[in-house]
Amino acid sequence: LANRLAGLQPSDIRHMTRECERLGGINLGQGLGDLAAPALVRETAIQAIQNGDNTYTQSEGIVPLRKAIADKVRQDNNLEVDFATEIVVTNGTTGAFAATLAAFLNPGDGILILEPYYGYHLNTILLNSLEPQFLTLAAPEFNLVEADLRNAIRANTKAIIVCTPSNPSGKMFSVEELLIIDRIAEEFDLLVITDEIYEHITYDDRRHVSPASIGNLKKRTVSIMGFSKTFSITGWRLGYAVADAPLAKAINLVNDLLYVCAPAPLQFGTAAGLTGDREFFHSLKHEYQRKRDIICEGLERAGLQPLLPQGAYYVLADISNLGYTSAKAAALAVLEKTGVASIPGSAFFHSAAGENYLRFCFAKDDATLKTAVDRLQLLR
Ligand code: GLN
């Protein structure tokens, strides 16, 4: 095996999904929505296949999709970008992230991740022989403190990842916090890499704020977004990176080498989704807010303390008073006892704090979610 694989394990997300399938449980572990993909998105993709749009596209993606993304980021993200040179359509946000790391960072460079973090960020960092550097944000608010961020910077720190709304905590970074990142990134000349895959899933009338739209961040930020969670098409693997032209050019070079291009007919489907009825995005928030409230009420009743998420479709539940020896043991015991799978908090933490949490994904149809909540009461 190559050195870069040293210490890399299949994710707990993968492991719990397999255990859940083995036991025939309800999978609130892996984050995937079982809402139906919008009909317009599906039908346009099918039509594209029938029309013969089945061959390579430009590595940066088809023009109609990039034009639709440029309109979308102008409206939703307050970002003015040129569709021709500043957008790269990628194989999921995962693909955008991998291409970004390969384009800008050298082995041994430090990259800051804010804990709790999405495990794929950490593992992709390790895969690229970069040095992960952790800053713990303290529960339950996960506020970013300027002095802490400054203290976390090392001589080799080249970049910082900002996942908002966050997987797994649901934290949304405020304008004030993004201004802190702006100041520190300027002071230490950091690249800022965002993960905004949950941008349309926000609660209690909160508005998603794109880091690149704040202060002077745009010139040093790669904004990574995608369609998986918005249109419930996690298996299509379609995302995109938005960045100033010189950065986008480098990302596109890597994207071409890794994947040639994103799946052609599916690009047509998502383009249609972006230009479709805006009401869709509105009802998405309401639908997920209802689900959030069902799961949080149910967790609380079962004696697991939910940390109310501001966005995304996960909730961290505090299990520290249930007496398990580790989060992994807790996740397996809960699955065995109730038939409900979750992900151990340790998958999202470098520090021991992760042992106190389980992450539940609530992107499930209401009936499934209610059954899961009923079963969780077996823990009382
Ligand atoms: N992003 C999703 C999660 O956090 C799924 C990722 C995956 O299956 N690897 O659960």
Short description:
Helices cover 41% and strands 15% of the residues.
Strand content: 15-25%
SSE pattern, N- to C-terminal: HEHHEHEHEHEHEEEHHHEEHEEEH
Q: Overall 3D geometry?
A: globular
Query: How much helicity do the residues have?
Result: 40-55%
The fold-level CATH name of the largest domain is Aspartate Aminotransferase, domain 2
- Return the domain count: 2
**Uncertain stretches of 5 or more adjacent residues:** none
Radius of gyration: 20 Å
Number of strands: 13
Instruction: State the major sheet.
Output: 7 strands, mixed
Per CATH, which architecture of the largest domain? 3-Layer(aba) Sandwich
Q: What is the end-to-end distance?
A: 46 Å
Number of helices: 12
- How are the strands of the biggest sheet laid out side by side? 2-8-7-6-5-3-4
EC number: 2.6.1.-
GO molecular function: kynurenine-oxoglutarate transaminase activity; pyridoxal phosphate binding
InterPro entries: Aminotransferase_I/II_large (IPR004839), Kynurenine-oxoglutarate_AT (IPR051326), NHTrfase_class1_PyrdxlP-BS (IPR004838), PyrdxlP-dep_Trfase (IPR015424), PyrdxlP-dep_Trfase_major (IPR015421), PyrdxlP-dep_Trfase_small (IPR015422)
Protein name: Aminotransferase
Structure in words:
This protein is 41% helix and 15% strand. By secondary structure, the chain is α/β, with parallel strands linked by helices. The protein has 2 domains: 3-30 and 280-379, Aspartate Aminotransferase, domain 1 (Alpha-Beta Complex), CATH 3.90.1150.10; 39-275, Aspartate Aminotransferase, domain 2, CATH 3.40.640. The structure holds glutamine. It comes from Methylomonas paludis. It is an enzyme of class 2 (transferase). Its EC number is 2.6.1.-. This is Aminotransferase.
